[in-house]
Amino acid sequence: MADILDMRDITKRFGPVTALRDVTLTVRAGEIHALVGENGAGKSTLMKVLSGVYPAGSYEGSITYDGQVRHFRSINDTEALGIIIIHQELALIPLLSIAENIFLANPPGRFGVINRDAVHARTVALLAKVGLRESPGTPVTDIGVGKQQLVEIAKALSKQVRLLILDEPTASLNERDSAALLDLLVEFRAGGISSILISHKLNEVTRVADRITVLRDGRTVETVDCRIQAVEEDLIIRRMVDRDLDSRFPDHAPQIGEEVFRVEDWSVDHPHHPGRQVVRGVGFHVRRGEIVGIAGLMGAGRTEFAMSVFGRSYGRDIRGRAFMDGKPVDLSTVPQAIAAGLAYVTEDRKHLGLILGEDIRKNVTLANLGGVSRSTVIDDMRELAVADDYRGRMRIRCSSVYQESGNLSGGNQQKVVLSKWLFSGPEVLILDEPTRGIDVGAKYEIYQIINTLADRGKGVIVISSEMPELLGLCDRICVMNEGAFVGEFSRAEASQEKIMRSIMRKGEQP
Amino acid sequence: MKRLGLRSPEAGVAAVLVVAALAIGTANPAFWGWGNLFGLLRSASVSGTMALGVLVVLIAGGIDVSFPAFAAAAMYLSVRAAADWGWPGNIGFMFLLAAGIGLLLGLANALFVHGVRLVPLIVTLGTGAVVRGFLLGVVGTSVVNVGRMPPETVAFGRLSLLQWDAGEGRVQLSVAVLVWAAAAALVHLLLRFTVPGRGLYALGGDAEAAKRVGFDVRGLTVLAYGLAGALAGVAGLLHACLAWQASPREFIGLELDVLAAVVLGGASIFGGRGSVPGTVLGVLLLVLVNNSLILLGVPTTWQRVVVGAILVGAAAATALRERGLRPAPSITAPSMTTGA
Ligand SMILES: Nc1ncnc2c1ncn2[C@@H]1O[C@H](COP(=O)(O)OP(=O)(O)OP(=O)(O)O)[C@@H](O)[C@H]1O
Ligand SMILES: [Mg+2]
Fold this sequence. Notes:
The complex is a heterodimer of chains A (510) and B (340).
Chain A: E1 3-14, E2 17-28, E3 32-37, H1 43-50, E4 60-65, E5 68-70, H2 75-80, E6 83-86, H3 98-102, E7 109-110, E8 113-114, H4 116-130, H5 145-158, E9 163-167, H6 175-190, E10 194-198, H7 202-208, E11 211-216, E12 219-225, H8 233-241, E13 259-269, E14 277-287, E15 291-296, H9 302-309, E16 316-324, E17 327-329, H10 334-340, E18 342-345, H11 349-353, H12 360-365, E19 373-374, E20 377-378, H13 380-393, H14 410-423, E21 428-432, H15 440-455, E22 459-463, H16 467-473, E23 476-481, E24 484-490, H17 496-505
Parallel strand pairs in A: 3-10, 3-11, 6-9, 9-10, 15-22, 15-23, 18-21, 21-22
Antiparallel strand pairs in A: 1-2, 1-4, 4-5, 7-8, 11-12, 13-14, 13-16, 16-17, 19-20, 23-24
Helix pairs in contact in A: 4-5
Chain B: H1 9-27, H2 34-59, H3 67-85, H4 91-115, H5 120-139, H6 151-158, E1 160-166, E2 169-174, H7 175-193, H8 195-205, H9 207-212, H10 217-243, H11 254-264, H12 276-295, H13 300-325
Antiparallel strand pairs in B: 1-2
Bound molecules: adenosine-5'-triphosphate and magnesium ion.
Residues 14, 17, 19, 37, 39-45, 88, 397-398, 407-412, 437, 439 of chain A line the site of adenosine-5'-triphosphate.
């Protein structure tokens, strides 16, 4: 098979940081090529080099695409040749509709007048192709991340795509949606479209990839061909982290104590549609030392529930009672929720989690400046020590804690968000997709941290779309569907099957 | 510290300032005289003090174009009070009064920006116009000149920190420089070392994230606009003390210079960035440029052109610098209604 892409000896520096060192990557026509590696290994950077985000001249090495050496100056250059990248952080415009987003740059029409009918018709066709059942006129804010991902793919299809680059497309998807997306890639492959797939979910990688390239510390470690030899996940992990990982989940013997947090009759209305209940009168509790998982499909109301509890950060007309250690508490504002001992680690780190223009140090201490200051005067040295401590414990890969957090790799940003909330010293920690976009090694570390927190008597609530994660980590799993809890399983009785069945029983989401 | 590295905006302005000073000094050696340097500092002190307030507002993600009107109002009202009624009678109290008037007006800005959630530019354009109109229409249009100026203001304006007799006359370092320096030190401490200071940066950097970690957004907005108002009030009275007169038409158009200086000093008009050292350097550079334009005999209209160009250029430089640090300025969805 012919190579459609050949990247040779790519070296990319950011000031003193060398993100890529002599990286080589070849992609054949009509293959799914997976790119794996730890957080900060350089995967996203390599794809930005390829797609012209970093123009020719800002890196060393050569790119041969479609038989010709190319010097891409911008995204426009690469898109014209059918190289379409879908970034780790989606780039849709929230208030525009699905159709408008898809045809943002090149809407069908003549003389600058957009042909609305054509937009509509083509959007419908594209949405059908990616299997998204939404009206083209729906604003993008009103659909979840998973569907937004599909909109991005539809957008790619609207251009003449030949090489599709997906940077962690399934990070925020649940298993069913992920599977659907991967099937889509397989379908594209049959149609001659090559894909580069970046993912930390190795089971997906081994399922669909034809070849896998492993990056470590900005270098190519190896490219393995899955069609020649069956590739084990463990092999890839060994290549990625350069050490053995015996198990994915640390052992943990829970010591469960008194109830620490409880809500009763908790209801939340949609922020834009008063009267539409997103959370319907639910009750929920967590005990000290307990790790409770919340399973459910996208749109089940898990994030909405968690955010509404955390100082009414989501929704309107929030009703219900909350108790900390058996005593009623008022959680009406974020400061009150924090004071009561809650912390909510958001799933959307780019927007609600980090101040990207600030360095790591300032982000880590942001939720608990009281912890590094005396009578509102910040102690620089303490702050530095705290940030350095978390940098070490969470293994945040950076040049120093003075590095701007916007320049960190996606997974390392997630670690900063997590550090911030850990440092706020909560009694109850709500983690919304805590390992989204985090590599296997770091995941293990995060699980360990979660276990330690539980051992120290905190209550931990984990919202996750990764079923194995919930099963491997949680002492109890609650299943949410359409704004209500529809099932509950102890660690012993929980299984992937039972949870799925309990989700399905309540009928599927449209 | 990373922020004071060679590639920081502060280092950039400092370098330009040094080059400009060397160039001017070479063309005109008299530039380097103590008298001239002290004179520059003195003339920078009024807009320099205002700039500190504007800096705080910009960092918090807002913008303020009302401060010249507020400064004029605070100055004129406090001077008129002292001239007409002999009250409050002491220069310290007069400054407190001016700061208080500025503070109150600043709170009005905060009220509209946070309480009613209006765009800061519109709010401050409006409040500035209202205050100026009220001042001219209701309080009066007459200029309080030297003869009627309260004696304590004139006396204060004549105070100097340092003075000695040089060949061509007395060299004086005006007390106004001390006022500016004190205000700068205060704002610097606030921004650099305190929790509310950190909150201002957070608010300007990402308002949603700041809210999510529990910062009191209303309090911070009040702090930013209130401080800007109070500093404008102080600067206004300071100007009257130095000029020995108080006119309600004072400071018209000054927002351009001050904003240019602050942006020149590395503050971002999108919020979240900026520092007191940068702002001080920016003000000095702008005063230097303005002065040499005057010395070169460039007409006032063309001076405006230059200052306007500096504002746009400096803003562009800041924006480009930030873009250099990050890949494409992608517009991402604040997906409030995300999964789960
Ligand atoms: N603009 C930048 N300035 C400085 N360093 C950068 C910049 N962009 C990336 N880096 C650094 O380059 C390295 C590689 O980052 P990259 O985003 O490619 O990692 P990644 O493999 O995609 O990781 P993840 O799985 O976490 O997304 C990281 O150490 C990161 O800090
Ligand atoms: Mg990445």
